[in-house]
Design a protein that fits this description.
Rossmann fold; two-stranded antiparallel sheet; binds adenosine-5'-diphosphate; 5 helices; binds magnesium ion; six-stranded parallel beta sheet; 12 strands; alpha/beta
Length: 187
């Protein structure tokens, strides 16, 4: 389990990344950290890209139906505008944001904010997804989570697409994807 750095002893902000495949528990872990920040009386702003409307327009919902209220925003610049009101910023599904998110997250951390970013590190083809590789490079703390392989029960790092569509972005859940380990992903 990740033990949060405390705002008290830090001179600046920092960036935490939670990455991994679909169903690996990224959203669950993001919600856990954000709820604890709220318990610690931090002001918490939560954002997700508007394109991800799978469960709810104004909530982040995990596959286990854990939920927290979030702002659905069109672009990364919207996060920058809203972020001044908060000490802690949570961002889910960061892979869907434009590249500007990298600068914005960096600037927010430089201004003293704790920025927690969750996102898919790889797309359905096993390639780095959107701004995630860059975000991973500039992060201060990285947590890579794993799902259970739906074919063999092993450790899954890949989001295998079970349909024939080849667009990078296909919003969906169990009807389009399953978590797979390296061997079963490459079958
Ligand atoms: P992510 O945000 O990484 O897609 P979530 O936090 O939304 O993941 O969901 C994690 C939850 O998904 C787990 O706690 C579990 O209940 C459920 N789940 C469904 N399929 C799997 C799987 N193949 N491996 C692990 N967890 C799974
Ligand atoms: Mg998620």
């Amino acid at each position: 389990m990740f033990t949060e750095p405390s705002n008290i002893a830090q001179k600046s902000g920092w960036i935490e990344i939670v990455c991994g495949s679909m169903f690996s528990g990224k959203t669950e872990e993001l919600i856990r950290r954000l709820k604890r920040a709220k318990i610690a009386n931090q002001s918490v702003g939560i954002f997700k890209p508007q394109v991800d409307n799978r469960y709810h327009a104004s909530k982040i919902v995990s596959h286990d139906e854990n939920a927290i209220t979030a702002n659905a925003v069109e672009t990364a610049a919207h996060i920058h505008l809203a972020a001044k009101n908060y000490n802690v910023i949570g961002i889910d599904e960061a892979q869907f944001f434009d590249d500007e998110i990298v600068n914005i997250v960096d600037q927010l951390a430089n201004k003293g904010k704790r920025v927690i970013v969750a996102g898919l590190d790889m797309d359905y083809a096993g390639n780095p997804f959107g701004p995630m590789p860059h975000l991973l490079s500039i992060a201060n703390f990285v947590t890579k989570l794993h799902a259970v392989c739906m074919k063999c029960g092993g450790v899954a790092s890949y989001s295998y697409r079970t349909t024939n569509i080849t667009n990078q972005v296909v919003i969906g859940e169990k009807e389009h994807y399953e978590a797979r380990c390296r061997a079963c992903f490459n079958l």
